[in-house]
Design goal:
Layout lengths: L7 H11 L7 E4 L7 H7 L4 E10 L12 H4 L2 E3 L3 H12 L5 H8 L5 E8 L2 E11 L2 E9 L8 H15 L5 E4 L5 H6 L2 E10 L1
Parallel strand pairs: 6-7
Antiparallel strand pairs: 1-8, 2-7, 2-8, 3-4, 4-5, 5-6
Length: about 200
């Protein structure tokens, strides 16, 4: 994740050129970012795709991460190689062509842990945990459409939260889809703002 600063029009143009051939979305944090950024993004050809709640872990959920049963954890694997990254990327992007994504994801290994839920060799869910000195972010929680509603996303979120807290931070954030917001509230997250996503 990159934060814009300085000469905003020049930064937007520079980053658009830099990431032109790489699938990416731009996030505008309403309470943090400069109010001119949405106009700059639309002028550079991007469009508002969605608005999501920004949620912060408060630690007051109905079940802590360590409450997971081992049978659920046994299906969650941490990705450690390009084959796993390709499987993660295929589910997350819903695309079989993942070469460009894998190259970008590989660069994140220093700060990002990628998780998959595997059942009988098939990847049915994915998540990521990004850590930094400022805190941690749980991202890209996806369950394959034909397996939603069975607790896969919840289990991945709990495992991601456990990894985030094990990194030593007490500040964990995520953005929620409309379907996920209530689930994350039950896990101890509270809405603290909104993020606009541009593509």
């Amino acid at each position: 994740m990159l934060r814009l600063g300085g000469d905003l029009p020049a930064e937007v143009e520079r980053l658009r050129d830099l990431f032109d051939s790489i699938p990416a979305s731009w996030h505008f944090w309403r309470d943090i970012d400069s109010p001119e950024i949405p106009l700059l993004l639309t002028q550079s050809g991007l469009a508002l795709f969605e608005t999501e709640p920004l949620m912060l872990f408060t630690g007051t959920g109905e079940s802590a991460p360590h409450d997971l049963g081992q049978h659920k954890l046994a299906r969650i694997e941490e990705v450690t190689d390009d084959r796993g990254l390709a499987q993660w990327a295929a589910l997350w992007s819903d695309s079989p062509d993942t070469d460009a994504l894998v190259a970008g994801l590989r660069q994140g290994f220093a700060s990002t842990r990628y998780l998959v839920w595997r059942d009988r060799g098939e990847v049915l869910g994915c998540a990521a945990v990004v850590t930094s000195p400022a805190g941690a972010s749980i991202e890209h929680i996806v369950t394959r459409a034909d397996h939603r509603g069975h607790g896969i996303g919840t289990a991945l979120t709990r495992r991601a939260l456990e990894l985030a807290l094990d990194s030593g931070t007490d500040r964990v954030i995520l953005t929620a889809s409309p379907d996920g917001e209530r689930i994350y509230e039950r896990l101890g997250f509270a809405t603290v703002g909104h993020v606009d996503r541009y593509v």
